[in-house]
């Protein structure tokens, strides 16, 4: 006769499988939440790129004219002054775009929390089966 607290191996195995199924369901929910968060992060990064580009255009026009005028008044020829200011503007624009693109990289958008949790769950599941 078995005591009330002891359970058969099929019952234990059935519980383990049930817990594993519930764990997998929770992992999918976690993955959905993390992917949603990463998609939102990508949207914000794209918005920052667009906002940076839109705000940069009129500001650059004014700044480039002022810098060119300063260079011309200090002795540079007009074409050289415009070339120098254009190169500076290209560097600033490139930096803004690079920052936005780095936020859209695969590593930044990878669902790392979910992947780590799935790995831990895989180890736990192996331990349950042993």
Over the alpha carbons, how many angstroms does the gyration radius reach? 29 Å
Indicate the proportion of strand residues: under 5%
Helix and strand composition category? mainly alpha
| Uncertain residue ranges | none
H/E series, N to C?
Answer: HHHH
Report how far the terminal alpha carbons are from each other: 26 Å
Question: What characteristic shape results from the CA principal axes?
Answer: rod-shaped
The count of domains is 1
Largest sheet, strands/sense/barrel:
none
Q: Which bin fits the share of residues in helices?
A: over 70%
Number of strand segments: 0
Q: What oligomeric assembly is this protein in?
A: single chain
Total number of helices: 4
In round numbers, the mean pLDDT is 83
């Amino acid at each position: 006769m078995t005591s009330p607290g002891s359970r058969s191996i099929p019952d234990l195995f059935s519980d383990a499988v049930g817990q594993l199924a519930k764990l997998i369901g929770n992992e999918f929910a976690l993955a959905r939440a993390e992917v949603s968060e990463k998609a939102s992060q990508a949207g914000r990064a794209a918005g920052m790129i667009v906002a940076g580009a839109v705000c940069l255009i009129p500001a650059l026009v004014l700044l480039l004219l002022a810098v060119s005028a300063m260079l011309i008044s200090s002795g540079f020829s007009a074409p050289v002054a415009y070339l120098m200011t254009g190169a500076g503007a290209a560097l600033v624009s490139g930096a803004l775009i690079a920052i936005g693109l780095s936020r859209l990289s695969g590593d930044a958008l990878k669902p790392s929390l979910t992947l780590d949790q799935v790995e831990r769950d895989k180890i736990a599941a192996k331990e349950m089966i042993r």
